[in-house]
Write a structure and sequence with these properties.
Helix content: 10-25%
Mean pLDDT: 92
Order of helices and strands: EHE
Strand content: 5-15%
Strand order of the largest sheet: 1-2
Distance between the termini: 19 Å
Length: 46
């Protein structure tokens, strides 16, 4: 499951940018690539 910058509320987006030390998500390619991924284990894969 991919988590994108646009998935966050505006207040959280501003906190993420401030913590990263950038002003625009494009500086980190977050307008195109996910910030993070959550890997969910499928019980059928066991």
């Amino acid at each position: 499951m991919d988590i994108y910058f646009d998935d966050f509320k505006p207040a959280t987006q501003q906190r993420i940018l401030a913590e990263a030390g950038i002003k625009d998500p494009k500086e980190a390619n977050w307008d195109v690539f996910p910030i993070t991924q959550i890997i969910l284990e499928d019980d059928n894969d066991k």
